[in-house]
Specification:
With about 325 residues, this protein is mainly α. The chain is built from 16 helices and two strands.
Length: about 325
């Protein structure tokens, strides 16, 4: 729910957007045509009317706030974010959104109050604690931020922004050893897989493939492997030159209906690179059974590549 809204920890020097992205907003009209207009014009002619139009519709109002936040309009959104808290049936979402709008506007005391109100309403959640930690972080309270982030990942060890935030804080406090100690602690939490992927990446970078493979095996042994986990695993193995392992480790677990297209693309590329034509074409057949038209066009490209491999084998 918050994946697009929450960002990993960073140091804010100003609440205003940076000048090089400040001059214009790129959007698309109802016919899909690209439209570029000055920020002030977009604010007055697009953003404000949209906020007014969606004032009583929580999902649409949330979506509008989300888009405007990504374009750097946080100070313009404080009233709308407060309105979202009033009408949204998802109080965690609305309090996190309001808190981030206030944080991005440099209003830390108000952000803290909103996030604490969210905790009183919903109880502690990973998203609320992560953003409270951002308040501490921006106040240069590294110990306070670390404590909140540790609590967040104990609630949800795979909450990406909480985990990344905690690791970043621990690296800043204790260097690489502090980062690895925190990473090992996160790996030991029940159900943790995201930290294991980060540890595996660390091992790959160090040239220790057996240690990385041990982490991957633990992730793949889970009852409900996340599609994002498979994508990350495949991408990292490819980056470090272990393309064959993408096929042998990820391939047997991947299910088109559950795990999405991105892991499939990595698998298909790995089959091409290792010339596993039969396995690649078998995967193509499984994917076509569930593919929507845009995805199907990419599958046609892979089929042509496998056909080319067939012809190369015939003429070899």
């Amino acid at each position: 729910m918050f994946r697009r809204l929450l960002a990993a920890f960073r140091t804010r020097t100003t609440a205003a957007p940076t000048p090089d992205i400040d001059d214009a907003i790129t959007a698309y009209d109802e016919h899909g045509r690209q439209v570029v207009m000055p920020r002030e014009e977009w604010r007055d002619k697009v953003l404000h009317p949209q906020l007014k139009q969606h004032w009583d519709t929580p999902d649409a109002l949330y979506g509008t706030i989300l888009t405007a936040l990504s374009d750097g309009f946080a100070p313009e959104l404080m009233t709308a974010a407060a309105r979202l808290v009033e009408i949204d049936g998802l109080p965690e979402r609305s309090h996190v959104t309001h808190g981030i709008v206030l944080l991005e506007s440099g209003r830390h005391d108000e952000a803290e109050a909103v996030l604490q109100a969210g905790i009183r309403t919903c109880g502690e959640t990973a998203a609320l604690l992560t953003n409270l930690a951002k308040v501490k972080h921006d106040r240069e309270d590294a110990a306070g931020a670390s404590d909140l982030l540790r609590r967040a990942i104990r609630l949800d060890p795979n909450f990406e922004h909480g985990l990344n935030g905690w690791l970043a804080v621990e690296r800043a406090r204790g260097g690489e050893s502090g980062f690895l100690e925190a990473l090992q602690e996160a790996c030991a939490l029940p159900g943790s897989w995201r930290a294991r992927l980060l540890l595996a990446r660390h091992h790959l970078a160090a040239g220790d493939l057996p240690a990385a493979r041990e982490q991957y095996t633990a992730v793949l042994a889970g009852e409900d492997v996340d599609g994002g986990a498979l994508m990350t695993m495949a991408a990292d193995l490819g980056q470090y030159g272990h393309t064959g392992l993408i096929v042998t480790l990820v391939g047997p677990v991947y299910e088109p209906g559950r795990h999405g297209p991105q892991a499939a693309f990595h698998l298909l590329r790995a089959c091409l690179e290792t010339e596993r034509v039969a396995e690649g074409e078998a995967l193509l057949g499984r994917l076509r059974a569930v593919a929507q038209p845009p995805f199907a066009r990419h599958l046609d490209e892979f089929q042509r590549a496998f056909d080319h491999l067939h012809r190369s084998e015939v003429h070899a």
